[in-house]
Structure formats: structure tokens, C-alpha cells
Amino acid sequence: MVFDSDRLAPYDRPNLSKDYLAGNAPEEWIPLHPQAFYQELAIELVLDKPVTRLDAAAHRLFFGDGTSREFGAVLLATGGSPIRLDVPTADGATILYLRSLEDSRAIIAASAESKHAVVLGASFIGLEVAASLSTRGLEVHVVAPESRPLEKVLGAQLGDFIRGVHENHGVKFHFGLTAASVEKGAVVLSNGERLTADLVVAGIGVRPNLQLAEQAGLTVDRGVVVNAFLETSAKGVYAAGDIAKWPDVHTGQSIRVEHWVVAERQGQTAARNMLGSGERFDAVPFFWSNHYDVAIEYAGHAEKWDEIQVDGRIADGDCAVRYRLGGKTMAVATMGRDRENLETERAMELAMAESG
Question: What pLDDT, in 10s, does the model give residues 225-273?
Fold first, then answer.
């Protein structure tokens, strides 16, 4: 049985900022499965029914409509919510955010009546929204406080390359700045500059939805703390996806990763463990990001590094960029080298198996 506060069936969330938002994928592609899939597997999908309380000791869930349901084991996969900007708005102006299918629909509808868009934030979501709106023919400006996009994740060289890719498609960047206010038809920047804006979208990151776990008394540390089997501090209660903070064998650290493939793999491992398999989660984190016809694939996890090795030419979109710490490769980002990315991921998995 699956309970979801979203009124729509489970869908391909990464596509919401990529092909679907760009107009290159029809909405029929967005649902993960047809309804017949759930019926064939006897999965009861209960939508638009938020869980308001979890009693871990009594093994019972409580819902907003006053009903409750007992469970033997439960998986918390509450995901994250967009960080909201504390920016003054005037004249009925609005700032849109992207997390759900309804959010993506709202941005698409607004873009049909707009010529000028301002994206606040140069995160992965922010840049993918910028690329999608540019593909739809809008003039796009990106405003961000940092000096280049994605430097904290990908380093300066890849960050500059991504900036160039967007600029070649007409996107204009305003780095070292933030929005001071948003008005009807304009965004006023922290330096006083005014940008014409029929559409304003913010993409500055997400916060994990920890309220349910905190209310239940689970151990929380900037995420729901789980063991190697993805079980929380309460027996029979598991966590996966954006909220889960797990002991990563490769880095030797407890990490939390906000990416689709990680959530997918954790959900699979947690499901098997809920059925008693006793399986450790040891998958190497992986994500991809699309910027027009440029795709970046990233395997591993590197919150910091002391060396970046580049094999190939970043400018040609054919390279492998390795992030190393203390002589060890923590992660690799590739462009145009899918096989090498898979081989690196496999090498990391084998190294973890040998160390375990």
C-alpha cells in the first residue's frame, strides 16, 4: 500500500525540469506506470491522502481525515520541498517553484504568455529550468549569488563550461547578485538593476521533509538517520530518498543525497529489507543533468576534494573529470563517455566490496 499527499499518480520527476518542461516530451510520458501496473501487482495506491502522524511504537499511521492504519513495516519517502525565497513581492507578482507535476504545468502555462523569464538560482534545477524556457523561445536571465554555476559540485572548469553552454543559447547571467524584490513585470536586483520579467522561477535548492520523522521521535541529523539496511532508529521504520542519511561505505561518511537514481535504488533495497532480506545499501550515488544537447553524468560523492583530474577536453564535451581527496577518487563526472562513467561506478562498487 502506498500513501501519497500528491493527487497525481507517481511520475517521472526529473523530466519535469527537462524534456517535459522544454516541450519535447508529452505528458503521457510522465506517469511512471499505467494504472494497470498497480492493479496487476495488487498495489493499493492511495493519493491525495497526507500522513499527519506516525506512531512508531504502536506501528500506526494517522491521516489528515482522522483515519489511521496499522503497519508491520513502513518506508518513509517524503522527499523534499523547494526552499522559498524571502523576497518582497508587489503588485500581485508571484515567484514560481518546481517540484511537482502541477508546478511544471504552472510554469508551462505561464511561459505561453511570457517573453522574458528570470530564474533565481543557478542550481541544477535552476539551470535546467533556464534551458527549458530558453528552448521554448523565452529570453532568460539567471540571477545567483555565486561567481559561477555549480562550482561547489562540479568545480570551476565544468562550471565555466556549463555557463558557456547556456550563454551560447542566449541565457544571460547575473552572478554575485540576488533579488531585492519582485514586481509585476520586473525583478529588482541587489545592485538596483531592473530586469524585465513576465515569469519568475526560483531554484535555490530543497529541504528534506523531516516533519513526520521528527514528530515520531526518530533520530534526525539534517536528514533521517538510517543504518546500512536503511532502517531508522525505530524498528520496522525505514527511510529512503531525499530524507535518508546513510553510512556510505565509499566515502566512510554519513551522507544524504538528493537525486532520483539514489532514491530509486534505496527504495528497492528498503523494500527487500522490509520483507526480511537483510541487504546492505552500498550502491554508488549517481545522477545526470541535461543542458540543451549536453548531458553530464556523475558517479560517486565528493563534498570536497584536493585535486581535480581532467581526461579529455571539457571544451569539446568529451571528458572525464575526477574529484580526488587524499589520492582517492571520490567521484567522476563525464561528458560523452557513458561507458567510462559506468566502468568507474563499477570500480567503486568493487572497491567497496573488497574493503567490506
Answer: 999 999 999 999 999 999 999 999 888 899 999 999 999 999 999 999 9
**C-beta of residue 20 within 8 angstroms of C-beta of residue 107:** no
**Domains of the chain and CATH, by start:** 2-80+208-274 (3.50.50.60), 82-206 (3.50.50.60), 286-355 (3.30.390.30)
Specify the pairing of strand 244-248 against strand 224-225. Answer: parallel
